[in-house]
Specification:
Number of strands: 15
Helix content: 10-25%
Strand content: 15-25%
Mean pLDDT: 81
Number of helices: 6
Largest sheet: 5 strands, mixed
Low-confidence stretches: none
Radius of gyration: 22 Å
Number of domains: 2
């Protein structure tokens, strides 16, 4: 039976059978029957790895700290936790570095926790802030007015909708990375708001154009993606010459191979004259690669369940 030890981005503790990708704690919150009795017991709210130096422990032992679990690092940070100084030393040091103004000494754990605890709560409720989206730094998680969708800001979006985690245009390349396509060069000015390892579970990936394929390859290595929606059509416009702006059929095949177990759903290949390839070219390329059984075409204007 699931325990009440899953943390939401709002810092609430809920019961769910879904598994987390990170662990943490706020002290002992449970009673001998493993029921949650308090939202926190200490100021030190930390984020830990699920595995560290072969250590094992039963969950919710009476009198010991309550093991909490997070979907990903963005959720844990939004809830008010920080990286553990022992099992996540590199993330902890990075957290302190970004916290501190240039030229100042790095704060200790107690100093961090004093400030974080004052800022994370409004009484005993989660403190939230209103801000314009354009002014938020990468890695920020936000909620809409209904509290249903959360966003990792930047070119990459992580959306929580209807119990699913949707990832759009994954780019995990460092600042300065360049992508050359014919006569033009795309250069990245900032690194990712979160590393790929901090994303947690992904149910579906939306790829809007071909320059994000390396991000897709990284996602395929880390996550079991069940549905890949690919923007195809090999779009071309005169302003950039003969080079395509979206996936060609051949590149769609490469993406399908990267997601070895996913249903592949082509979109963005019809109804506009700047698409240089359409369904026949995509069908032929996928069939030639022996991947036809994984291809799913969506009928026009019909609500469709996109799974095998």
């Amino acid at each position: 039976m699931p325990l009440q030890n899953r943390v939401t981005p709002f810092g609430e503790l809920i019961t769910t059978p879904a598994r987390g990708t990170l662990m943490g704690n706020r002290g002992c919150l449970h009673d001998p029957a493993r029921r949650i009795r308090r939202p926190f017991a200490v100021k030190r709210w930390i984020i830990c790895l699920l595995e560290f130096k072969g250590r094992h422990r039963p969950v919710m032992v009476p009198g010991q700290y309550t093991e909490l679990f997070f979907l990903d690092e963005a959720t844990a940070l939004a809830a008010g936790h920080r990286p553990c100084a022992e099992c996540q030393r590199s993330r902890y040091d990075l957290f302190r570095t970004h916290w501190t103004a240039r030229g100042r000494a790095l704060p200790g754990a107690d100093d961090l926790d004093d400030v974080l605890h004052a800022e994370r709560l409004d009484g005993r409720a989660k403190r939230t802030y209103g801000e314009r989206l354009a002014r938020l730094p990468s890695g920020t998680m936000v909620a809409d007015t209904d509290g249903q969708a959360y966003l990792v800001h930047g070119t990459t979006l992580v959306l929580h909708l209807g119990g699913l985690r949707l990832l759009t245009d994954p780019t995990f390349d460092p600042a300065g990375a360049e992508f050359r396509s014919g006569a033009y060069v795309l250069r990245k000015t900032h690194g990712p708001g979160l590393p790929s390892a901090a994303l947690g579970r992904v149910d579906a990936v939306l790829l809007s154009h071909d320059h994000h394929f390396e991000g897709v390859a990284e996602v395929s290595r880390r996550f079991a993606v069940h549905t890949a929606v690919l923007f195809m059509g090999a779009a071309r416009v005169a302003a950039v010459g003969p080079w395509h702006l979206t996936f060609t059929a051949a590149e769609g095949v490469d993406a399908a191979r990267a997601f070895s177990n996913a249903t592949v759903v082509p979109v963005h290949f019809e109804d506009w004259e700047h698409f240089s390839e359409s369904r026949p070219e995509i069908d032929a390329a996928v069939a030639a690669a022996g991947l036809g059984k994984r291809l799913r075409w969506l009928p026009r204007g019909v609500e469709t369940e996109a799974r095998r």
